Amino acid sequence: MFCVNCGQKLEPTARFCPSCGAVSAAAPVPPPNPAGYPQAPQLTRSRSQRLIAGVCGGMALHYGWDISVTRVITALFVVLTGVGALAYIAAWVIIPEEPLALPPNTV
User: Fold this and answer.
1) Based on CB atoms within 10 Å of each CB, which residue in 11, 40, 45, 70 is the most buried?
2) Residue-level pLDDT at 69
């Protein structure tokens, strides 16, 4: 087997060319996601898009929904059913808060 970048002879198990550092054609490729979708991060309560606790903002950011529509539907759910307020409070307690984004270290 030879490097496609520089033509150097490679060992069959080599992941990189020892001469130029190019990735070998035999390098293992990670398997694609079976669903075909990118791996979604964990659902968290938003720090930037919050009015009360960040539950609606976190849901909208996680699922790609419009945040205004999410808030209106949640408000209707709370007003029209008594269960909506309990569901919101439960989500407030259960869903973890988004981690703080620290500035890069400039040392």
Assistant:
1) 45
2) 92
